[in-house]
């Protein structure tokens, strides 16, 4: 299991890094990475909606997947009807879900079905789409690699340290195997990853270490949040596409929180 987890995580990091550091035009590299993001979003949404179905919650799976794919594609190709295109998109998605209710034969579960579908779009698609936004920032290629490395190396560190030294349960109600020692190890790995990426950020080492710590915490919260959803749905993994890691959603859960936070932080700092 440990070997599979390390191999799977390494493959994810390598694929993204190779796509971004390829000796092609910058915009082509961003497009390639953006397409990868869209594919992961589609797969992640499918797994999310399937988990909801296993729990007995009906949802508009294919509508949610379609809308969830359009959102990152609009960001990738910079299609904006208004300055707040994403908010307009969310309003349109909600309106579409409400209109679809008129075809139902009964009113039972309307709020739950709409809420679940919209939550999936926001949680998986919108949050993960911030990776594309980061890529479009000045020096975005390095920034994108930075947030991925900090987050995923934190995941690896938490698993390595937790499996070897973990004795104190972190939140057993949500994730019985996660330990305080593993969480601390993950934070250390995240900080080390940030320090390694310091040349890509062009900030002081202290500043970079603080970013690594903050993203490390958010990454673990993202992991715990998905564990909470799986616990509620009574499933062990969201899927089985990656050996040792489970499904796509299991692999990107930690990035769902770090990507938006990193983008908003950079947007404020780079002004």
Quick structural overview:
The chain is mainly α and 271 residues long. It has one domain.
What characteristic shape results from the CA principal axes?
globular
Output the radius of gyration: 19 Å
Please report the total strand number as a whole number. 2
Percent strand: under 5%
Along the chain, the helix and strand elements come as HHHHHHEEHHHHH
Q: What is the number of helices? A: 11
Whole-number count of domains? 1
Spans of at least 5 consecutive residues with low confidence: none
Architecture overview:
The protein is mainly α and 271 residues long. The chain has one domain (2-269). Helices cover 75% and strands 3% of the residues. It is built from eleven helices and two strands, in the order H-H-H-H-H-H-E-E-H-H-H-H-H. It has helices at residues 2-21, 26-54, 61-76, 85-100, 110-135, 140-165, 180-196, 198-201, 205-233, 248-252, 255-269; strands at 169-171, 175-179. Strands 1-2 form a two-stranded antiparallel sheet. The protein is globular. The mean pLDDT is 85.
